[in-house]
TrEMBL record:
<dbReference type="InterPro" id="IPR020846">
    <property type="entry name" value="MFS_dom"/>
</dbReference>
<protein>
    <submittedName>
        <fullName>Major Facilitator Superfamily protein</fullName>
    </submittedName>
</protein>
<feature type="transmembrane region" description="Helical">
    <location>
        <begin position="99"/>
        <end position="122"/>
    </location>
</feature>
<keyword id="KW-1133">Transmembrane helix</keyword>
<feature type="domain" description="Major facilitator superfamily (MFS) profile">
    <location>
        <begin position="1"/>
        <end position="184"/>
    </location>
</feature>
<feature type="transmembrane region" description="Helical">
    <location>
        <begin position="134"/>
        <end position="154"/>
    </location>
</feature>
<dbReference type="GO" id="GO:0005886">
    <property type="term" value="C:plasma membrane"/>
</dbReference>
<feature type="transmembrane region" description="Helical">
    <location>
        <begin position="44"/>
        <end position="63"/>
    </location>
</feature>
<dbReference type="InterPro" id="IPR036259">
    <property type="entry name" value="MFS_trans_sf"/>
</dbReference>
<feature type="transmembrane region" description="Helical">
    <location>
        <begin position="7"/>
        <end position="32"/>
    </location>
</feature>
<dbReference type="GO" id="GO:0022857">
    <property type="term" value="F:transmembrane transporter activity"/>
</dbReference>
<keyword id="KW-0812">Transmembrane</keyword>
<feature type="transmembrane region" description="Helical">
    <location>
        <begin position="166"/>
        <end position="183"/>
    </location>
</feature>
<keyword id="KW-0472">Membrane</keyword>
<feature type="transmembrane region" description="Helical">
    <location>
        <begin position="75"/>
        <end position="93"/>
    </location>
</feature>
Amino acid sequence: MSLLRTIWPIILTQIFTSAGVGLNLTVAALAATSVTGTDKFGGLAQTSTILGATVITIATTHLNHRFGRLTSLRLSLFLAVAGSLICGLAVGQENELRWILFVGLFLLGGGTVGALLSRFVATEKVGNGKHASTAISSVLFGSAIGSAIGPNIYGIMAGLSAEPMRLVFLFSALIFAGGILPLL
């Protein structure tokens, strides 16, 4: 079986995941500023995502030992889908529910974890032999593609909607879900 046939689902997942992460990095601080009404919380957006990635990494590490890396990858992307949906609901809220944006951003850390974890899933699929470095580089190439696409989606969404941030987060959920599909 050829190497690419073995890891193509992981490469496709990485393209989707990197696009979702790049898109969310583009709008997270803008969303935090918009939702809170002050620039003071702009940095808290990225902090929430990094803290989420840290906690999700610890959780998925424990899952790796029991159920394998593929299960951990699926879970991290599922959490990113949930985080995107929560962020989409939080944007535009003019009441006490604004704080849920940061819960959503915390869960979006799953996208970061998924982007890092997928290269290890690829090596697990091909083994640690001579194909491991090719598998990692192929997945990283997928990351480059997704990272180039993701941030540019906001510009497209801004032209389509009066509330582009809400649309972006909802589209982000679809992107992360698209990353899960090849893994099923």
